């Protein structure tokens, strides 16, 4: 059915110029089709389908059985009745030639097969394999279906085909996996038919759907009034900002429309395309959807890229669409049991179906008689005929072919301001299987960001992000790394140049999940610790320059620790004035400061500060405590906090903990140095692991 086709008026006045416009449009259409056919021929010059070897094919490919001949006669009869009752419709795609030049009914070309790979049990895995494994070839004539339809086995062998070849192969895999899938012959946009994705956003860049925010449990708390402001002034300011933003957006849209506005397609609504329809029900599919075989992407049945449907078929039957497609596919009903919407070739019930949805008022008696006879013949056929089995042999894909689907070594897809590259596993020595480059302009000249995905690396690196503006590199690791790494952000693998490391904290004893280190500071974040510690901040001073000039290593000449800050969550088992929230050790100034948590009714936190006595020499094994070097503010504390002996014991504990903290900081520095050494060695000597289930790769290693 010709989608979005404008009806011509039967009566035309002499002064009306519509006929001239139509003739001009048809002339332009013929020229465009001729140009596209010439371009297709030039593009396909590297492969000639007429030279393929068919001598080794089974006899079912070269001849028709008695049942198949009977099926072709019934299909011809159905086609004659269809063209007689619907003369304005386009010819149906029913029995094209196969690779041996033999007519075959399209339903028998579908060969349901379940391939022995886990991903091929799901529609996404089947669609991804088909679009990666095959090379897309456009139709020779963009407005007519092909004259031939080769078997899926031949398509798999030569790894190329048009949209109908893609669709039949994908539908065979989906039906074999248990889906209620159908091949669709219809019409689509130029971008979809030509596999032009330069106007689309890359799927990797699409943001996930936003999760609705939970209600604030304290939404009924008292809101104190803010500083009074004039509502009129705020409204005027908001209007000015809104008008400025609208004007700016309009200017930007005008510029974008002028630069990126696609040209009008003279063949819009006429371009033939084939895709897959998956009905809801089987395999717990919640909603009916389309699959574009060229991209493997899922589309809604209301997608505006699909402009109309002529017919659909599977391995059991053939249906003709009797619905109006002037508005595309968004209003179509996919209830195949509805005879007013879909005309089935072989009725699956005893109910009579009618080819036209409504008989026209000006029908002649001959048309009525032919319609009645056609319905009676269909009922007789349904009672006696059974669809023959597929003439195609079982589909087979070896492990080597499945693991290396790209016949040209890699696959390149161009999106809007992005380029995606794909490789097979083990094709690159560093395990690279995919790269996504994001650009700042549509001409793809200025790079903004590069993302790379890896497989089978022994260091468990699976993704790398590179910000081209800041040169910041972020490596992501799977669980199981010897150093428990989860992510590592850096600009250089040199120490003290700014590193952020994330860990799998559940596997660590100290609960550390993130650490940031630079030349002057180090910040550590913790999760799930029994002491409720959640952050530790360390400030470093400058190294001794004379020692540094002598070439001493960083371990022998450590950075001096200026201060250490620790922050704790609230411990509900302790009173607030005994539960420390912040602890500051000023190592060089010899000052310790404690800040306690607040109770619900408190406004000022309790504090204790231990200062160094001026003019007194500091000793490691001695603590000098007096009221002059102790400052405290504990308005809600009990009597024991006012006791000097309690403060003396507290100071002893803090001195011991300060010594341990300094050692922990040195251990963290040593751990960071070790991480950088290990990462540098892993990048210099990249090793790929081979799974015990990867038979193809193990055969290569054995050879």
From TrEMBL:
Compositionally biased residues, Acidic residues: 241-252
Originating gene: Drc7
Stored Pfam families: CEPT76_peptidase, MORN_DRC7
The organism's taxonomic lineage, starting at the top: Eukaryota, Metazoa, Chordata, Craniata, Vertebrata
Subcellular location: Cytoplasm, Cytoskeleton, Flagellum axoneme
GO CC field: motile cilium
The keyword Coiled coil is annotated on this UniProt entry: yes
Protein keywords: Cell projection, Cilium, Coiled coil, Cytoplasm, Cytoskeleton, Differentiation, Flagellum, Spermatogenesis
Protein name: Dynein regulatory complex subunit 7
Domain Dynein regulatory complex subunit 7 MORN intervals: 408-691
Residue numbers spanned by region Disordered: 233-252
GO biological process: cell differentiation; flagellated sperm motility; spermatogenesis
Domain named CEP76/DRC7 peptidase-like: residues: 272-345
Family indicated by similarity: Belongs to the DRC7 family.
């Amino acid at each position: 059915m010709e989608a979005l086709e404008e009806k011509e008026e039967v009566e035309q006045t002499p002064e009306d110029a519509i006929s001239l416009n139509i003739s001009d449009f048809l002339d332009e259409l013929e020229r465009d089709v001729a140009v596209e056919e010439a371009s297709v021929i030039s593009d396909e010059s590297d492969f000639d389908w007429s030279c393929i070897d068919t001598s080794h094919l089974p006899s079912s490919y070269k001849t028709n059985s008695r049942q198949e001949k009977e099926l072709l006669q019934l299909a011809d009869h159905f086609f004659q009745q269809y063209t007689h009752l619907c003369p304005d419709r386009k010819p149906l795609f029913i029995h094209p030639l196969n690779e041996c030049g033999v007519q075959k009914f399209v339903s028998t070309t579908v060969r349901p097969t379940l391939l022995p790979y886990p991903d091929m049990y799901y529609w996404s895995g089947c669609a991804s394999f088909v679009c990666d494994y095959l090379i897309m070839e456009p139709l020779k004539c963009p407005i007519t279906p092909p004259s031939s339809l080769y078997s899926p086995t031949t398509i798999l062998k030569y790894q190329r085909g048009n949209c109908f070849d893609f669709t039949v192969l994908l539908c065979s895999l989906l039906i074999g996996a248990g889906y209620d899938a159908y091949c669709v012959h219809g019409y689509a946009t130029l971008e979809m038919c030509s596999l032009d994705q330069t106007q689309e956003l890359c799927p990797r860049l699409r943001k996930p759907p936003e999760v609705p925010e939970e209600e604030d449990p304290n939404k009924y708390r008292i809101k104190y009034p803010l500083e009074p402001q004039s509502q009129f002034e705020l409204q005027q300011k908001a209007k000015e900002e809104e008008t400025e933003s609208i004007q700016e957006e309009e200017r930007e849209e005008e510029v974008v429309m002028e630069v990126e506005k696609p040209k009008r397609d003279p063949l819009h609504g006429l371009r033939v395309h084939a895709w897959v329809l998956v009905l809801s029900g089987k395999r717990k599919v919640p909603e009916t959807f389309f699959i574009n075989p060229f991209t493997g992407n899922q589309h809604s049945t209301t997608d505006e890229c699909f402009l109309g449907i002529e017919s659909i078929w599977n391995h059991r039957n053939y249906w003709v669409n009797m619905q109006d497609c002037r508005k595309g596919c968004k209003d179509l009903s996919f209830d195949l049991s509805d005879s007013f919407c879909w005309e089935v070739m072989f009725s699956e019930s005893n109910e009579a179906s009618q080819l036209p949805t409504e008989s026209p008022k000006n029908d002649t008696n001959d048309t009525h008689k032919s319609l009645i006879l056609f319905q009676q013949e269909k009922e007789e056929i349904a009672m006696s005929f059974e669809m023959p089995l597929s003439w195609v042999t079982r589909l087979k894909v070896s492990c080597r072919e499945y693991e290396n689907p790209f016949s040209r070594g890699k696959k390149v897809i161009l999106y809007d301001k992005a380029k995606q590259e794909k490789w097979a596993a083990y094709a690159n020595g560093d395990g690279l299987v995919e790269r996504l480059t994001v650009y700042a302009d549509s001409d793809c000249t200025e790079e903004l960001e590069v993302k790379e995905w890896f497989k089978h690396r022994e260091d468990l690196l699976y993704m790398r992000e590179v910000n081209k503006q800041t040169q910041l590199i972020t490596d992501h690791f799977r669980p199981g790394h010897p150093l428990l790494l989860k992510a590592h952000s850096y600009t250089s693998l040199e120490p003290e140049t700014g590193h952020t490391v994330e860990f799998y904290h559940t596997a660590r004893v100290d609960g550390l999940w993130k650490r940031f280190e630079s030349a002057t500071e180090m910040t550590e974040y913790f999760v799930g610790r029994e002491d409720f510690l959640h952050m530790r901040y360390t400030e470093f001073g400058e190294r001794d320059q004379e020692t540094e000039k002598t070439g001493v290593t960083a371990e022998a000449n450590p950075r001096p620790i200026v201060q250490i800050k620790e922050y704790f969550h609230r411990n509900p088992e302790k009173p607030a004035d005994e539960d420390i929230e912040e602890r500051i050790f000023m190592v060089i100034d010899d000052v310790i400061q404690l800040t306690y948590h607040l109770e619900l009714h408190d406004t000022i936190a309790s504090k204790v500060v231990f200062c160094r006595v001026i003019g007194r020499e500091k000793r490691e094994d001695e603590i000098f405590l007096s009221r002059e070097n102790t400052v405290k503010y504990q308005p809600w504390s009990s009597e024991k906090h006012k006791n000097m002996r309690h403060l003396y014991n507290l100071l002893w504990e803090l001195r011991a903990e300060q010594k341990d903290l300094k050692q922990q900081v040195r251990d963290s520095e040593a751990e960071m140095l070790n991480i950088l050494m290990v990462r540098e060695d892993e990048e210099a000597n990249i090793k790929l692991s081979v799974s015990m289930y990867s038979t193809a790769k193990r055969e290569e290693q054995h050879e």
